[in-house]
Amino acid sequence: MSGGVSRRLVFTNRKGGCGKTTTSVNVAAALAHMGSNVLVIDTDPQAHATMSLGIAQGGLVHDLSTVAEGRSTAEAAIRSSYVPRLNVIPATRRLADFERRYANTMEARFWFRDRLGPVMDRFDYTVFDTPPTTQLLTLGSLIAGREAYIPMQAHFLAMEGMIEIIELVEQVQRHHNPSIAVCGIIPTFLDESAPASGQLLRDLRARLGDNLILKPIHLNHALAEAPGAGQTIFQHSLRSAGAIDYYRVALQIRDAPAHGR
């Protein structure tokens, strides 16, 4: 660590297509570009964060599932990405098997926290990219984390999913991890030409407070292209509106008080 408290950020939403992995990867990359040491933990069996950071699943002996099961150490699973100061504990499809085997095992919810804790404390930021579910892999991430951020498509139909995740975080806080809290809602795919988008932002701020609603991520072609190129938005199109948006969100997160210890 470069100094200060180690922060653990969980990007989560039960709805797919909200830009969750794009947000996880690009916020992590922005923080690394700012000079922080960052660890991305990919808890989604689809492994999109892993692939976006240049790590192929083929041939990986150690991944998050082998760490969680105690068959390898967290140190052995860490891989360097192409972004300086940004490392990854990758996901593979084995994570889906892990979740099926241990879905009803209460103690498995704590394995991420217990087996990743010493490694996470060495980084300025740990970023969890979760699957679009509320099952074991997401629960384990929330129990290991301290700050939950909810990327939410800027559409009224996405409100229900956001509310469900807020309720899940509150349940985890009450029963398993008093250090976790929702620290930000990140509106994604914002189209400012649509009047409904502005109304949605006003409704969110009125309901949840200005401080909880972070700067939005606008619709941007470069953001859609970057994952296909296996790049973050900063490698793909540094001067794009998408890069500017994610840099601003990362600044907000960096400058916010660290939550939980």
What does this structure look like?
- It is a single chain.
- With 261 residues, the chain is α/β, with parallel strands linked by helices.
- The chain has a single domain (7-255), classed as Rossmann fold.
- Helices cover 43% and strands 14% of the residues.
- It has twelve helices and seven strands.
- It has helices at 20-33, 48-52, 64-68, 74-77, 94-102, 111-120, 136-144, 159-175, 195-208, 221-225, 233-236, 241-255, and strands spanning 7-11, 38-42, 79-80, 86-89, 125-129, 147-153, 181-188.
- It has a seven-stranded mixed β-sheet with strand order 3-4-2-5-1-6-7, sandwiched between helices.
- The two termini are 15 Å apart.
Q: Any descriptors?
A:
single chain; 261 residues; alpha/beta; 7-stranded mixed beta sheet; 14% strand
